[in-house]
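Quick illustration, no need to memorize.
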Amino acid sequence: MSGAGATADADGADPVREASEAAATLRERYDELARIEARIADLGRERIEAAADAYRRAHRVLDRYEEDAVGTGDFGSYVQFRGEFGEAVDVEDDQLAADAFAAADEAVDKRRLSESDFAAAREALEPASEYVDLLADRDEALDDYRAARKEAREAKKALDARLDDLREVADMADADLDADVSRLREPIESYNDAVREAFEEFYTSASAREVFAFLDRADGTPFVDADVPPTDLREYVDEYEAGEEPLPTLLEYADYSNSKLEHYVDDPGALRTAVAVHRTYVERLDAEPLTLDWPPAEGDEMAYEIDELIPLVSRVADDETVATLRSVRELARDEEYERLRRAAAVRHALDDPELDLLERGVIDDRVREAERTLSIAEDVLTETERE
């Protein structure tokens, strides 16, 4: 489970709503793009681009020569301007905005030009700007469509994941959420606390050889995932007298200077080589392989695991801790165990919003809503796909 709630993510986002909105936006962007492209097709794309190109060329000529070609300015610039501008606005009679280009040419067809003539030419060209804007609108609409399609795909992907979560929650509807799971939690927590304390005492007081021998035995049981020592560290502990010391003492020795360490061990170099490089391993050793998981395993598995744990735990913990472990095994064999375990597993897997869906009995409605929205999103993505 995502653990973020079945109706919304941790940041408050609702994948169902967002997928619906993204699909609606994609449909709008697609329709807008189609409307613009239909208009372009009606007018003829080549004719529109020709008109837009002529409009841009004409404005570039006006901008380039306005300062030099007005009044009593440079006659050569005037002549060059007239030639270039006349060429820029020379379009076929049936060209889009042909009248605008002709009017612009007429506005500057004078022996002496003023700034107002240039302004009049620009004003005359204005009808042709529609086609520049139309092409710009098409590019913007295409960008908006692509962004909306990307967002819709991402929203659909998020909804796919949320629907998986919702279905998983729906599969848990069989759990008895009113069951008193404390009947399991309390003895398991009590045992785990006790065995952690017992192992810590064993770790700090027993010799390194004893601890490693215990780990070897624990590793030989299928349900206990003990972290056995590295080979070189194990060989050092077995072969050198320092192996009779507790592991914390060996770590302390590894911090000594050579001159000081010579007073405690026969071969300081061997200790440093074997112990110092494995400090992280030694410091990480704890009782976790001996603890029981929460939520607990199924009854038969739990009982079998405890059967294997009892001989191990008996070596490091007191009788009371072992007795608590046995009591958990008896619970695992009780006919009520599976009901309690199922409730514990569901409560552990779900956050409050998800539990609320189960408790109010609306989870199936949410699944159907998500399925409908996903179907709509898939249809919109298919129907708005462009070649």
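Confidence is low (pLDDT under 50) at residues 1-7.
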